[in-house]
TrEMBL record:
<keyword id="KW-0378">Hydrolase</keyword>
<dbReference type="InterPro" id="IPR000165">
    <property type="entry name" value="Glucoamylase"/>
</dbReference>
<keyword id="KW-0732">Signal</keyword>
<feature type="signal peptide">
    <location>
        <begin position="1"/>
        <end position="21"/>
    </location>
</feature>
<dbReference type="InterPro" id="IPR011613">
    <property type="entry name" value="GH15-like"/>
</dbReference>
<keyword id="KW-0119">Carbohydrate metabolism</keyword>
<keyword id="KW-0326">Glycosidase</keyword>
<dbReference type="GO" id="GO:0004339">
    <property type="term" value="F:glucan 1,4-alpha-glucosidase activity"/>
</dbReference>
<dbReference type="GO" id="GO:0000272">
    <property type="term" value="P:polysaccharide catabolic process"/>
</dbReference>
<protein>
    <recommendedName>
        <fullName>glucan 1,4-alpha-glucosidase</fullName>
        <ecNumber>3.2.1.3</ecNumber>
    </recommendedName>
</protein>
<dbReference type="GO" id="GO:0000324">
    <property type="term" value="C:fungal-type vacuole"/>
</dbReference>
<keyword id="KW-0624">Polysaccharide degradation</keyword>
<dbReference type="InterPro" id="IPR008928">
    <property type="entry name" value="6-hairpin_glycosidase_sf"/>
</dbReference>
<dbReference type="InterPro" id="IPR012341">
    <property type="entry name" value="6hp_glycosidase-like_sf"/>
</dbReference>
<comment type="similarity">
    <text>Belongs to the glycosyl hydrolase 15 family.</text>
</comment>
<dbReference type="Pfam" id="PF00723">
    <property type="entry name" value="Glyco_hydro_15"/>
</dbReference>
<feature type="domain" description="GH15-like">
    <location>
        <begin position="47"/>
        <end position="441"/>
    </location>
</feature>
Length: 450
């Protein structure tokens, strides 16, 4: 630990250098895309593991992330499913491993068990359980895989219907039954009811309903649950704060008085393809939350006032965070949190391009940071909206530049980067960091993951 900080201090002056002009953003993105894809593949099926094991990171010590988390693996497999270059065998391995996991005995004795060992058995130590976002993310990814295979004329259609679909139904049935019960959040720290968890549950159910449209399966239970979850989600909006509160009904765990959390944005990005305006990236309440969260990190991390203006704000999980990637001390910015800003901005732009935008008392602060603009409606053809979009694009790219600057020169991305001097911290080559970069760059290319 000591040597790490000594090194950081020695290299600290580097952060004053302007962003390197040696390689422009687009070039870096295409290079990083390759590196991130390859790093994800390296973290899947590493030697000595059961096939379909997605390591959260190859780091086995300080911190030990050599497990398959249901959440991380589902979110990573979701990104892989959206990439043409992904080999179907890999997805098949993921599905097989996860179907076994659904039938493995776990300490929570439920589908919300958070993490599994390299041989596929469940982790039995003390941990925050259940984490009920996991089955929802898995169902979303399984549905995406099923659709990819059906669309591509996959040879074994009966297998999809007889094996994969029942696994999807297990997760959806579970969600319909437990959604209102307290569970641990995606950061594994707070037992309560969470905006993020409810949002991914709602998407899983709605995607399931769509999937079963052509069959005569009865989806009434899913319809009712998704409706009730939607009603509950609306109650997370705080008029007093003018942003979405991440958690309600806290039973125990970390205290987070602000209620601000980047998981709110992660949820918006994951559900964006529902396209229903319900807490989507471009919706008023989401934009209000986006700006409030950014403004909470700006003064919090010293690096934000020290780095070049060409970079975007360094973003962490939530302002009260004290997890430093190894232990608890002070929280740091995270790559996946910073990438979430690029992704959200681009997904918001895609909504405005279709529907135009209304600047109002809820989202005003967001737009004012982008440019001087009066309240009112701006159509997609209006010069004002075009200007807003141009400036938002620029702001979105700045977050990518932040990532480019703080990652290692070889394209490596850990979990976090230091709040004082920007050096990487926490689990090395976190699989999710690389997947988050890929979704952000895909959003820039106007590709929406379903
Ligand atoms: C590991 C968890 O995954 C992380 O979210 C948490 O902050 C740390 N443990 C510290 O408790
Ligand atoms: C800690 C994070 O808080 C959690 O979200 C994640 O699942 C694990 N690390 C593994 O990456």
């Amino acid at each position: 630990m000591f040597t790490r900080y000594l090194l950081l201090l020695l290299f600290a002056p580097l952060i004053y250098y302007p962003v390197q002009g040696d390689i422009d953003l687009d070039q870096w993105i295409s290079k990083q895309h390759k590196t991130s894809f390859e790093t994800i593949l390296d973290n899947i099926n590493p030697p000595g593991t059961k096939r379909g094991f997605f390591a959260a990171s190859l780091s086995t010590h300080q911190p030990d992330y050599f497990y398959t988390w249901t959440r991380d693996s589902a979110l990573v497999a979701r990104v892989l499913t959206s990439l043409q270059e992904t080999n179907d065998t890999l997805l098949h391995d993921y599905v097989d491993f996860q179907m076994d996991v659904q039938n493995t005995s776990t300490r929570c004795n439920c589908l919300g068990e958070p993490k599994f060992n390299k041989d596929g058995s469940s982790f039995k130590g003390t941990w925050g359980r259940p984490q009920n976002d996991g089955p929802a993310e898995r169902a979303i990814t399984f549905l995406l895989i099923a659709n990819r295979w059906l669309d591509n004329g996959y040879k074994d259609t009966p297998w999809i219907h007889d094996t994969l679909v029942p696994a999807i139904i297990r997760d959806l049935n579970y969600i319909s039954k437990v959604w209102y019960q307290p569970s641990f959040d995606l950061w594994e720290e707070v037992l309560g009811t969470h905006f993020f968890t409810l949002m991914v549950m709602r998407k899983a159910l709605l995607d399931g309903i769509d999937f079963f449209k052509l069959s005569n399966r009865n989806v009434e239970e899913y319809k009712l649950a998704s409706h009730l979850i939607g009603k509950r989600i609306e109650t997370f909006w705080s008029e007093q704060h003018n942003y979405i509160m991440a958690t309600q009904n806290v039973q125990n765990g970390v205290q987070k008085p602000s209620g601000l959390d980047v998981s709110t944005l992660l949820a918006a990005n994951i559900i964006a393809s529902r396209n229903d305006g319900f807490f989507t990236p471009g919706s008023d309440k989401m934009l209000a939350t986006v700006v409030a969260l950014e403004e909470s990190f700006e003064p919090l991390y010293p690096i934000n006032s020290q780095q070049s203006d060409a970079l975007g704000t360094c973003i962490g999980r939530y302002p009260e965070d004290i997890y430093d990637g190894y232990d608890t001390s002070v929280g740091n910015p995270w790559f996946l949190a910073t990438a979430a800003y690029t992704e959200l901005y681009y997904l918001a732009i895609a909504e405005w391009e279709k529907l135009g935008v209304s600047v109002n008392s809820i989202n005003r602060r967001f737009f004012q940071r982008i440019m001087q603009v009066d309240d009112g409606y701006y159509s997609p053809e209006s010069a004002t909206l075009k200007e807003i979009i141009k400036k938002t694009t620029h702001a979105a790219d700045k977050f990518l530049k932040t990532i480019q600057f703080h990652q290692a020169r070889n394209g490596s991305m850990s979990e976090q980067y230091d709040r004082y001097i920007g050096f990487m911290a926490g689990a090395r080559d976190l699989t999710w960091s690389h997947a988050a970069f890929i979704t952000a760059s895909k959003a820039k290319d106007s590709h929406l993951i379903q």
